[in-house]
Fold BRISC and BRCA1-A complex member 2.
Amino acid sequence: MVNASEPMVPPLIGAQLNYLLSHSPLSIKVEQIWSGSKNPPYLSDRFTLLIPFCLDYIKWDVIYNAQNPLVAPDIIFAAVDENFHPFSISAEGHSHSLKSILCDWNCKDPSKLLLLIHELRVLYNVYQRKKIGQLDDERLKFEISTIHSREGIEVSMNSAPDKADEVKFSVPLLDIDLNKMVHGCTWKHRQQIFLQVIFPISRKYSLAPTAPRIKLVGSSELKALFPIEDVKLPPWLDGMCLAEYLPIIEDNLNTQIVEAVAAIGARRRFIEALAPLFGRPLEADPVFCRKATVFSCSGVFTFLVHFSLPTQFPKQQPVLVLQSSQHFNSLGTPVMSPPLMDYPWSPRWEEPKMAERIYEFLAEECLNFKKYCNESQLQQY
């Protein structure tokens, strides 16, 4: 990602770009920054933005004039969107708001570019909806009409030379703030789970149309709490529409999220139960409680125990890795054991008993690990 504060970006332009990147609720990215001038000084006054839309990115070029940074920039849309004319779209006052932003452009107000991009993005969604509504596909028209009132839905046409045309829906699920459900989380953006639904475009009406391709989508940050890819989706029944499917999947998802948040408490209690046996952990994940490291010894042999706690804890047991503090390989890296899971475990035990059984297991396993460390060093000679 290009740093908008680099010296060749005029200060007024750099301030607006920095504000956009740091204050937008969307994870907007800069693909490239370049200069529109062939004569020195080569001031960087234009850039390509990657803007999240419908679980993908759209590319827009933002064109300023370094010689006259007081005026609003031009926005160049992708070639496939040549029919996107924002000022001709009626969208509950957004066209009027867009005109107001441009007419009242204040180059010293760093928030102006953010407002401009967000208004254009709203109008772009309206443009895509109208584009799909003009298709000769009764099923798609019905799908859009039945979920029209639901907030946050985005749609887009997917066209490729070697593939049949498709329409993609991005549907935000669950009207809950996941950030507030996890105490102390440091997520920059509000976490949201989406249902991606892809319908093939059909010219014929069918009483039993084929089921769309569906999957859940969430940010990589969300995996610390809730692995989206592990969620088993309810089946799409014959004749079902999206409006019928959404309540089913939301009920299913809500139950699993409540369980995932509760699992944080269970993991925290387990980590706390390690202290009476191993001493206070050297380090631990204080938010999601997915990792912890303790110090242990057997006579003069000292080692670390790394705990990796799965999101499905206590149904799934922690993975243990032992790390010697006295044995190193040829690269100077501490010798570590393979992942260990073959030890007594029951999800029905209380956390202190879980910790106690692991402590008893390690009292014997550390002898095997010490032998493993010694053999590893002998192989170096």
Residues 242-278 form the longest helix (37 residues). Residues 290-378 form one domain. The chain has three domains: 1-134, 135-272, 290-378.
